[in-house]
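Posting here for the record, re: adenosine-5'-monophosphate-propyl ester.
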Amino acid sequence: MTSYVTKNGNSYWPSKAMKKIAWINNKSIYKEAAKNPIKFWGKLAKEGIHWEEEWSPKNTYVEKLPYFEWFKGGKLNFSVNALDRHLGQPNKPAIIFVPEDPKEPPTILTYSELHQRVCKFANALKRMGVKKGDAVSIYLPLIPEAAIAMLACTRIGAIHSVVFSAFAPDALRARIQDCDARVLITSDGYYRRGKKENLLNKAKKAIKKTKIKDVIVVPRINKNKNYWGKFKRFDDVSYGRSSHFPPEMMNAEDPMFILYTSGTTGKPKGIIHDTGGYAVQTYWTTKLVFDLHKEDIMWCTADIGWITGHTYAVYGPLLNGGTTLIYEGTPDFPKPDRWWDIINKYKVNIFYTAPTAIRMFMRLGDKWPNKHKMDSLRVLATVGEPIDEHAWKWYFNKIGKGRCPIIDTWWQTETGGTLINVLPGIGPFVPTIAGLSFPGTKHSILDKGGKKAPQGFLVQNSPFAPGMLHGVWKNHKKYKETYWKTYNKQYDTSDGAILKNNLIRVTGRTDDVMKVSGHRLSTAELEDALNKSKFVNESAVVPIPDNLRGQVPVAFIVLEKGKPSEELEKRIKKHVDNTLGPTARPAKVYFVNDLPKTRSGKIMRRILKNILANEEPAGLSTLVNPECVQPIKEMVKERKK
Ligand code: PRX
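Prediction output follows.
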């Protein structure tokens, strides 16, 4: 069996076989790109993307911080790049959809079929009045219609806003209201562990007090149900529509989508990605980082509701003319080897997942992956949080069978695509190390004073990557303050990092953002949700490490009414499920009489963190109410027994 890695000391390097296949096997690309990053990206843009009109060379990169634009004046349509230019291979599978029920056959959409369905649906949206620049909300599980809807928006030039299907109605409503969407695309439900989950009921609750006038429903669960009034079936609206749709030509810097993500306040931010820069970065990072070739099948396990699902489960493989596999269901259903069975059965070549999933499978035991050869795999990758050495090794040995490189990719919703990682044909592949900035981009590690340091805060330097966010929806102030305030003219990632042998190791967030099972959640957002409960007077949320989920939130609550009890803890957790969704549910709730606060009224979460970590809390002298600390300590100690 071909091995794509060789061992040298504690690290792995690409083998001859990998070097032979890989698009990039020579380090000189880094030097060439660094010499003139703008010229480098200009060349990549022309090589990788079809432009209807090109930009003038002086406009390849225009920087007026806090904004910057790539390929200004260039015109393109994203869906033409993802679909039309692959119609020379019309029968090539574009999407393989694997339903949760192993008995339900997969759906395979060829490029030609996908193109037709996208055009028909774009025509349907147009008939409903959707036009260039309008926002469309998408609340769908991981089914092909999600990709069709997104691509149809890009055909029209409408801005899609995909909302994670496990989010609760309140969370969806806030996102619909913020972008003023008039059309919502959803489904009647989806399958989870063989059970039918109703999505439409949640969508119905969410659209109250919004401007939604049309709700398009994909009948995933009940194929025969009819809909009336503002509710319409996905296939009905497309039926009879033309399978041609002249693509709307977009400026490179026109917004393509919004994706809401957690920041340090209670309200999620609408991260804006524009069309041209995102297309260029997505095409090239997919090709070079995952080493995707046209004949490859790539499986990125991320849900469509996250940026990873956008960039690497849909757009990256399609821009490259490859095949993307998407799986609807729970990873370990009906048996703990479901994922490995899918890899084997469909001959997946590139597999991309999160450390939290790897840790879950580790717990389930080696016997499950041992049953499957998985010899089609060539590249394994991870994202979302730091991967510890133990999980890295398990992934390498049990899934890759010691043959495949592991590419640890660091990036964010804001960066649009991976920006720090090693390349498969170059290496090295070292546990816990993400690696080097993608050619043509640059990151530095700074100390608190903004000076370069071997350990500290991770920033990105100019010229900023083409796929970077293009602002925060309707909130210039937030954009400026979140990313550009702290480090002069450098993008603040809010991550900590260490430089080790010139390679970057990302250690995690330095702000109040948690990563729960790889999902991004802010302490403020959860506190905001808790404070909306009639029982809660005040709350403080802190993350604690968790072997499986990376981090989990713990809530400290001062009650407004009711008495501390298990029952009330359950009710409060349920309230979180209903307002934010189950991912945000606190692992534990402590009912306290008071929260440690400074004289200015700021809650000192650090003290609560110390108590949970069994450390002596520091800085009590700054508190206005130091007497509240001891009872909290005792309570935590008691619960740990
Ligand atoms: O803390 C970093 C962590 O995930 C954050 C971004 O989260 P989100 O916007 O949800 O995007 C996740 C998928 C791109 C980062 O600020 N993170 C992401 N990848 C890594 C990581 N931390 C360490 N290593 C990584 N490979």
